[in-house]
């Protein structure tokens, strides 16, 4: 069995099997997740950070704004009719990111490293792809 190549945390690769509306949804989710978690390279490192990580540096409201932006990814997941199990895993990722992210300095480092939006985007894509392959098996 061939080993699946590891995708860096900063990338989301869309499955070739996605077409039409599913592909458009996946592209929107991937673009937003990258913007929130991995849009900007940190000079001199291989680390990338996004708007969510930058917002975390704003005391008091930064993490709340990041949570609102992450809510859009939940909206897209709901529209895509992902399983409740996937939504629950996404909620855990977002809750962990928001809770730990609220801790000064340590939370900001965690937020940049954890990349909950990228994790959630991958969960959604995996769910959509699974559903597509499940439907193909029935045909």
List keywords for this structure.
single chain; 139 residues; mainly alpha; two-stranded antiparallel sheet; disordered N terminus; transmembrane helix; DUF4112; transmembrane
Write a brief structural summary:
This protein has helices spanning 20-37, 51-55, 62-79, 84-101, 106-114, 116-138; strands spanning 40-41, 48-49. With 139 residues, it is mainly α. InterPro entries: DUF4112.
Biggest sheet, in brief? 2 strands, antiparallel
* Overall mean pLDDT: 87
- Poorly predicted runs: 1-6
Secondary structural class: mainly alpha
Radius of gyration: 16 Å
* Share of residues in helices: 55-70%
Distance between the termini: 26 Å
Q: Spell out the helices and strands N to C.
A: HEEHHHHH
Q: Give the count of structural domains.
A: 1
How do the strands and helices of this protein lay out in sequence?
Layout (H helix, E strand, L loop, with lengths): L19 H18 L2 E2 L6 E2 L1 H5 L6 H18 L4 H18 L4 H9 L1 H23 L1
Antiparallel strand pairs: 1-2
Helix pairs in contact: 1-3, 1-6, 3-4, 4-5, 4-6
